[in-house]
Design a protein that fits this description.
alpha+beta, BirA Bifunctional Protein, domain 2, Rossmann fold, 2 domains
Length: 456
């Protein structure tokens, strides 16, 4: 049985050390969460899977890690400072603010049911900063609300350092910050979150081809790499396009309360480089952009064959890493009835994504010989550099198995008294619960095969 509600995941995350409420001992802060020992590992594995697909598996995309704090001029010309806001209504009875398009009934408050609500008003989503030793408190910089804009302004830097012909891309993973008035859905919508975004720069004449290509590439990654069933994903075109977009749509996952966005694919035309380039009038910019008198660099591409200089179009893929983790956990969460009448909860994660790759368990913690042998196996597995390996020494084999089922460990290795006699151990597999007796010398190869196979 899969997770019935997000609350099933919330409880598991707290119990097993995936995600904690931020500032919890002081009452918390809405939309802020801390990632615990296993949440850190799962997030890292998702990041690595994305980075491998975007950078290591291709030769046309470069990486970037830009600053979190940015000059406010960047956000002026990107359009964020003037228009990056959410239209919210406010309940006059209880004071709750809500996005009208997300309300169950746009005429009633989701919190108290009152019909006495205001007309929608715009609320600024960017988090302003006052920086500098002599700052008077006025906003002179922003925490970035996305990674994309910091990629565009580095276009020439990357091209000069690592020359490419079109098409080519720049990818980065990092934190972004938005002044969400109504965070919701656990880690689905937060004030501090993580994005994995790629900007693919192309000749304007090829925009439709590459827009379709990236829709297919990214959907395949969710299915093949993260293990999400195809029937729980869909691509939904935007009914209303943003002012910069020629085409756009979302990869949506079927959460317990319905389909919602986990990744956006956008044809942003030449809006972004056109907005930030010097000497805008020298180029035939197709998108509508603000006149820029402050940029010091031309963000254009010179075709080596024709000599033409133009502003490239951009196809963007933008994934929420936190949302990806939530979708992966929801899909992997399984409640199973066991033959003895009991039940278990298991995270059937792909082995490559699992926070712990293998657990070594001495059957009795008060037998030094078993513990010493378990330590030796643990050390041999660590040398494989495949991720986190744990030694469990609580002495209760049943509880250890259940704990590792819940955190998604693909295999547990039990060292018992027979191990001292014949140098064999028991491999217990997470999904099937089947057990296999193998030689200790074969354990590293067996574990490697499980991780490389990377199937649920």
């Amino acid at each position: 049985m899969p997770a019935k509600t997000v609350n099933d995941i919330v409880a598991l995350c707290k119990r097993r050390g995936f995600i904690f409420t931020g500032s919890e001992i002081y009452g918390g802060l809405g939309g802020a969460y801390d990632y615990g020992p296993y949440g850190v590992e799962l997030m890292k594995n998702i990041r690595n899977a994305w980075w491998n697909a975007m950078i290591y598996s291709r030769n046309d995309i470069e990486g970037l890690d830009a600053a979190l704090i940015s000059n406010r001029l960047m956000w002026k010309y990107s359009g964020h400072e003037g228009s990056f806001s959410d239209p919210l209504v406010e309940c006059k009875k209880c004071g709750t603010r809500m996005r009208q398009d997300k309300m169950k009934d746009p005429t009633k408050c989701d919190n108290c049911g009152s019909t006495d609500i205001t007309e929608p008003r715009a609320y600024q989503l960017m988090m302003g900063l006052s920086i500098g030793a002599t700052s008077d408190g006025a906003i002179n910089a922003y925490l970035r609300p996305e990674t994309a804009t910091t990629t565009y302004v580095n276009f020439k830097n990357v091209m000069d350092a690592c020359p490419h012909k079109l098409p080519f891309g720049i990818a980065q993973i990092g934190k972004a910050f938005r002044n969400e008035i109504s965070p919701r859905g656990f880690v689905f919508r937060m004030r501090e979150f993580e994005q994995a975004e790629m900007q693919y720069f192309i000749n304007p004449s090829e925009d439709e081809k590459y827009f379709e290509m990236w829709k297919q590439v990214r959907m395949a990654w969710w299915i093949d790499t993260l293990g999400i069933p195809a029937e729980k994903l869909r691509f939904t075109p935007h009914e209303k396009l943003a002012h910069y977009a020629k085409a756009a749509g979302d990869i949506e996952y079927e959460f317990p309360d319905g389909f919602d966005e986990v990744e956006g694919i956008h044809n942003r035309q030449d809006f972004d480089l056109g907005s930030h380039t010097k000497s805008q009038k020298e180029f035939k910019i197709q998108a509508k952009v603000l006149e820029n008198k402050d940029s010091t660099v031309k963000l254009a591409y010179s075709d080596p064959q024709t000599g033409e200089s133009f502003i490239p179009f951009v196809i963007e893929t933008a994934m929420g890493v936190n949302r990806a983790m939530l979708a992966v956990m929801l899909d992997a969460y399984t409640e199973e009835e066991l033959p003895d009448g009991k039940s278990r909860i298991v995270l059937k994660l792909k082995p490559a994504l699992a926070p712990v790759k293998a657990a070594v368990i001495p059957l009795a913690r008060n037998v030094p010989e078993l513990v010493t042998m378990a330590n030796g196996i643990e050390n041999d597995l660590r040398k494989l550099n495949i991720g986190r390996i744990e030694l469990e020494n609580s002495g209760n084999i049943g509880k250890n198995y259940r704990r590792h089922d819940e955190i998604g460990t693909p295999v547990c290795i039990t060292v018992d008294h027979q191990s001292l006699e014949d140098n064999t151990v028991t491999l217990r597999y997470r999904d099937s619960m089947k057990q296999e007796r193998v030689k200790i010398s074969d354990v590293p190869q067996k574990v490697m095969e499980i991780i490389i196979k990377n199937e649920k």
